[in-house]
Amino acid sequence: MNFKNICLGALALCMVSGVALAGALDEPDNMAPFFTDSSMKTMKPMEEFKAAFMAMPKEKQDAMMKECQDAAMSKAHAEFCANVKALGGANK
After folding, report:
1. What global pTM score does this model have?
2. How many CB atoms lie under 10 A from the CB of residue 53?
3. What is the C-alpha to C-alpha distance for residues 30 and 64, in angstroms, rounded to an integer?
4. What is the pLDDT of residue 7?
5. Which long-range contacts (CB under 8 A, 24 or more apart) does 47-54 make?
6. How far apart are CA 23 and CA 81, in angstroms?
């Protein structure tokens, strides 16, 4: 019985920590405003990208900027992160 409870507790902990590890760039709701299509394949032009970025709360902007500074994360989102980095000084 204790083994079963330990396993269930470990599973729950893994599920909760997995959600906590998901970053701003992994959230479709955060990323959708920057793309022209629902499949998020075509990024909006820089003017529209900037408008979407500036409309976000400062906390989300900072989280995206931080994740784009991480080489592993920015590699998967190279074009997006290039735009975010270009806007880095604009919101200060």
Report:
1. 0.69
2. 21
3. 9
4. 52
5. 49/83, 49/87, 50/87, 50/90, 53/83, 53/84, 53/87, 53/91, 54/87, 54/90, 54/91
6. 14
